[in-house]
Amino acid sequence: MSTRTSALDAVVFGVDIQSGDVRGDAPSYALAVYDGDDVSRDVVTHRKLRRLIDDEEPAIIATDNMYELAADKDQLIHFLGSLPAGTRLVQVTGAEQPEPLSRVANRHNVPYGKDPMQEAEAAARLAAHNVGHEVSAFTDTTEVKVARGRSTGSGGWSEDRYTRRIHGSVRKRAREVESELEEANLEYEREVREAYGGFANAVFTVEARPSDIPVSRNRSGDVRVEIERQRRDGIEFEPLVKRRDHVIVGIDPGTTTAVAIVGLEGEVLDVWSSRTSDTADVIEWIVERGRPVVVAADVTPIPETVEKFRRSFDAAGWTPESDLPIDEKQHRTREHPYDDDHQRDAMAAALYALDAHKDQFERIADKLPPGIDRGEVTARVVAGEESVEAVLRDLNDDEEPEEESTEHEPRELSEEEKRIKDLERQVDRLQSHVERLEGRVGDRDDRIDELETELGVARREERKEVRRDREVSRLERKANRLERERDEAREEVETLEKKVDRMKALWKLDHSNFSDVSAEKEGLVPVKVVEKFTKGAIREANEQYGIASGDIVYIRDASGAGRSTAELLAEFDPRVILKDGGLSDIADKLLFEAEIPVGPADDVAMQEVDELAVAREDDVEAAINDWHERAADRRRNRKAAMVDQLISEHRAGDNEV
After folding, report:
1. Alpha helix (H) residue ranges in 511-616
2. What per-residue confidence (pLDDT) applies to 414?
């Protein structure tokens, strides 16, 4: 157990069948609850087990066979979907071809007995130490669907108004959901199907689990909200920890410590740098990514810090004959990304160490028979200075006592079993296809309802026309004439209303009651008001009175805006943005880079009348000039910071030399 890092940060439930069968009516389970120190034991029914899982929300439910908790695949998927957000199901005996629990427990030095309670405890202890595979049937993507809560159906005289009300309610609720997702800073995609009076439905595909989404499943009157986590194509297994391969480590010490991990085949696996991490943090980072065979530096002799790391891993050391020039390091690392010069130097050291040992690695590989771990042999030859032959003899001696256990290795599947697995995979694909088709059928049913509604209206109109006589026809012609006159009158009214609105706006500008404005009321400019710094509020303001390039925009609450919201406002290219409240760093940076002035609203005297506002041109111009002065200072400070950083890195390089 000492070779694995414990993953225990909460309780683990170990579960094994005590009596009965999950396919029967009343199975009972041996339950071992392990908290890292103590184990509590109990025998529970299936219903009580589910209740304990919901109440205590264990980190892991460990079992030697996942089908002891569910009768078939569908029930297993339902069981996984009902687990609390932080609970995982782990099969400790492996993935699709599990091993006997006794063998796994013996391999990891865990107490084991054939009694169900002992097996449950062994499963809990194994899972607590990262042994086993997590069983998963769902992705981290969730679909939120806002749709009609009732059918439009066939109604009476007010059916059109009834349909329009339902679709309007769906549209309103969809916009509320979108606003909640934006406030939670969740990534999502929206797909809307518009209908008469609003939306027939709106589907949000959100990159988050249901527990992280601030929207709940509900059905209220005209609207229903459905939340469903996207399923995988089948059941998937993911090991709790990945196997740590043998690697070459390059280290660049100093004020900023950088580490690069390179595989024995030459692939750059990871690179990292930090100014605050200590030796323990660096060692932990390396341990999580592999077992060092060689620890390398880009200067000679090997720095004392790098030598300490080498001794910690009992690895071989490597340094160049002379300090590596910068141009050679740049050339050797040109095909690999890095964030700073320290990461480049660490990566160059590892890659040059790989080049120096490449021939030796190939000679070792040529001498190895099939089935032997190349990394283990390479580590002992390079770091332990043993011969390949001696290592092979040692490995063979270690494996001889295990000859009996090799008889239990997973056997090759028969043709019939292979056929069964192929058919199971085909069934999974067909079930997924059926689910997609059912979704399409649901959408088409909604469309059929709409068409039936329209058809009913058309049939009623047709029946009315059949019953009409000549007098009705004469009245229709008269009605048509009156309708045309009415439409013309409405168009004229709309034109006059727009003219009146413009005159009102001009009147408001001309009759501002600023106490500090001169008697002639000159020098006033209009201001477009946005209630919140969100996409929805910006779009609403644009729909109400339009936001054009060069406009003055006033945001009542500027807090909480993200990148996409700032980008949307920047696209309108306003003359200046006046704000109340603090602006997020990302929004401030984006607007600064777009050279859009931003200033506090308190510095500009404004008068609001209904939805309009006006401000003095002098105040606006002063706010813009103040922003330009602050922008110049900000650019100078940024350049000074860059110069200071370059000087610090140069001095650090001199100190290392």
Report:
1. 535-545, 563-571, 585-593
2. 64
For 257, phi then psi, to 5°, come to -95, 130
Q: Supply φ then ψ for residue 635, to 5 degrees.
A: -65, -40
Q: What is the mean pLDDT of the chain?
A: 82
Two tokens, residue 611: 């939805």
Give the span between the Cα atoms of 308 and 288, in whole angstroms.
18
What's phi and psi for 28, nearest 5 deg? Answer: -120, 155
Report which DSSP code applies to 235: E
Q: Which amino acid is at 114?
A: K
Rounded (10°) angle between helices 388-399 and 374-382: 130
CB 165 within 8 A of CB 222: yes
CA distance 290 to 575: 55
Cα angle for residues 463, 464, 465 (degrees, 5° grid): 90
DSSP code string of 83-104: S-TT-EEEETT-SSSPPPHHHH
608 and 529 in contact (C-beta within 8 Å)?
Answer: yes
CB 124 within 8 A of CB 13: yes
List the structure tokens of 502. 């413009």
Tens of pLDDT, residues 512-548: 444 344 433 557 888 888 888 898 888 888 887 778 8
**Strand intervals (E) in 510-609:** 524-532, 552-557, 576-579, 598-600, 606-609
d(CA 411, CA 417): 11
Q: pTM here?
A: 0.39
Question: Which letter does DSSP use for residue 154 in this model?
Answer: S
Task: Give me the mean pLDDT over the 474-487 stretch.
Answer: 88
For residue 308, CA distances in Å to 273, 303, 610 come to: 18, 9, 72
For residues 356 and 266, give the distance between their C-alpha atoms in angstroms, rounded to a whole number. 12
Nearby residues of 88 by Cβ (< 8 Å), 6 or more positions away = 59, 60, 61, 134, 135
β-pairing verdict for 60-63 and 12-19: parallel
Residues contacting 597, CB < 8 A, separation 6+: 575, 576, 577, 623, 624, 627, 628, 631
Residue 266 CA to residue 368 CA, distance in Å, equals: 19
Instruction: Specify the pairing of strand 552-557 against strand 524-532.
Output: parallel
Q: Is 317 left (phi over 0), alpha (psi -120 to 50) or beta?
A: beta
